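Lecture notes, continued. The same structure-token format from the folding unit now serves as the input rather than the output. Read the line below as a description of shape only.
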């Protein structure tokens, strides 16, 4: 089974691929054999010049450099030696029913297939909590955890079972804990501060690319706030919520998902989550193209207390307590959209702004209700319906809003007690509304 089959869901824009691996048992052997052959061919085809094979004289600069490791090289080696033992290799297994391809002709029952997946994770505390991606431990179809989760630490042949402590599908994060693991093998990796990152800083990615566990690559931070869709949305569809991600050119491939991205001080600055792969759009299996993404570690640090208290359940991004009021009929389902989807003439007739999120309903006893937001009255039109006479949210904390995802993206790192300022239009008149989040926002 190819990499994209690990979670059959609404496809991302062409070329996007997450980086776990899921495949039948036989496919794993074929992939590893193919990788071995590929490496051999590449090695044999690298040209060697006379300068590469020549011997430097004892007094030449080359001889001096050969006798001492470069500072950057030594730094990388020190980080790998010290923190690689905190890396965890994760494997999952689940039985899925596959339709009998000849059943329509000859009859017969559906077939049961064992689907395996591999990914990465790392220890975050002395209690043995392991942080990874949600899609690494999610079952087939992305709904809930896989039937079997096992972890293996460095220099150990045997794996041990692990259980889910907490899931955060919208953030593509999960917290798991191994059972029966020798406590002396728990080696937490220190967590850094992703808010202080700058483009050009060194980045070291650890993980299990293509199932090659305990591998290391190095690059730089290419961007500190790349806006991309991450995780599973709160309405159960495959589209993730747009979030800020760290972009790096450190090689990230299928199987690296959930592994740590470290800085030159050995601190975790991000959790590797997905790649932009033109090759993946054509083959269905994403491969490194020098554009990989990691979830900022500060987002994970904010979520850790909630994940630790989830008792195996899920936590979600905070909500204001509203539903979208502009719905169009998509293929097989109704889809909430922003005002940019309507014609200019239609918006003018309904006295609606050019862009924004139409408020359909406001839940009772919610932050939105307490702030005085108001929904409209549903009015049908060919292919959908729109709520008129209520509020339209056009911005949150100064950032434009045209969809629920825009609202969620601004709320995703908030905590109880935090406030946001909404720009709201009602009846053609705009005003600012302050909304304070409370415990009800996080349930």
């Amino acid at each position: 089974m190819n990499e994209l089959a690990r979670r059959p869901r609404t496809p991302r824009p062409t070329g996007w691929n997450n980086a776990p691996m899921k495949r039948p048992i036989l496919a794993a052997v074929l992939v590893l054999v193919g990788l071995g052959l590929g490496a051999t061919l590449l090695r044999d085809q690298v040209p060697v010049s006379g300068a590469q094979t020549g011997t430097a004289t004892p007094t030449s600069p080359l001889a001096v450099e050969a006798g001492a490791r470069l500072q950057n090289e030594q730094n990388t080696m020190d980080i790998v030696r010290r923190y690689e033992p905190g890396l965890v290799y994760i494997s999952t297994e689940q039985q899925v029913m596959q339709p009998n391809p000849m059943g329509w002709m000859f009859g017969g029952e559906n077939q049961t297939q064992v689907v395996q997946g591999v990914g990465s994770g790392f220890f975050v505390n002395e209690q043995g909590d392991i942080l990874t991606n949600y899609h690494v431990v999610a079952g087939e179809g992305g709904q809930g955890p896989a039937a079997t989760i096992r972890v293996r630490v460095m220099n150990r042949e045997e794996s041990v079972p692990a259980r889910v402590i907490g899931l955060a599908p919208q953030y593509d994060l999960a917290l798991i804990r191994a059972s029966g693991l020798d406590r002396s093998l728990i080696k937490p990796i220190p967590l850094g501060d992703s808010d202080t990152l700058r483009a050009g800083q060194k980045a070291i990615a650890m993980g299990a690319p293509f199932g090659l566990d305990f591998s290391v690559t190095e690059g730089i931070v290419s961007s500190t706030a790349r806006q991309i869709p991450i995780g599973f949305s709160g309405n159960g569809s495959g589209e993730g919520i747009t979030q800020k991600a760290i972009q790096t050119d450190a090689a990230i491939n299928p199987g690296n998902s959930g592994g740590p991205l470290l800085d030159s001080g050995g601190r975790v600055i991000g959790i590797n989550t997905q790649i932009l792969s033109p090759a993946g759009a054509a083959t269905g299996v994403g491969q490194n193209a020098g554009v990989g993404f990691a979830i900022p570690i500060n987002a994970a640090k904010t979520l850790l207390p909630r994940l630790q208290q989830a008792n195996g359940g899920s936590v979600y991004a905070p909500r204001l307590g509203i539903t979208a009021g502009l719905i169009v009929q998509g293929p097989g389902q109704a889809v909430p959209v922003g005002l940019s989807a309507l014609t200019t003439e239609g918006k003018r007739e309904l006295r609606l702004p050019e862009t924004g999120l139409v408020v359909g309903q406001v839940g009772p006893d919610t932050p939105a209700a307490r702030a005085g937001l108001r929904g409209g009255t549903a009015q049908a039109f060919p292919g959908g319906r729109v709520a008129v006479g209520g509020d339209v949210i056009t911005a949150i904390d100064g950032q434009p809003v045209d969809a629920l995802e825009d609202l969620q993206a601004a709320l995703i790192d908030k905590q109880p007690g935090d406030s946001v300022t909404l720009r709201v239009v009602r009846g053609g008149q705009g005003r600012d509304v302050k909304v304070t989040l409370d415990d009800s926002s996080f349930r």
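Point for the exam: The chain has two domains: 1-39+69-313, 322-442.
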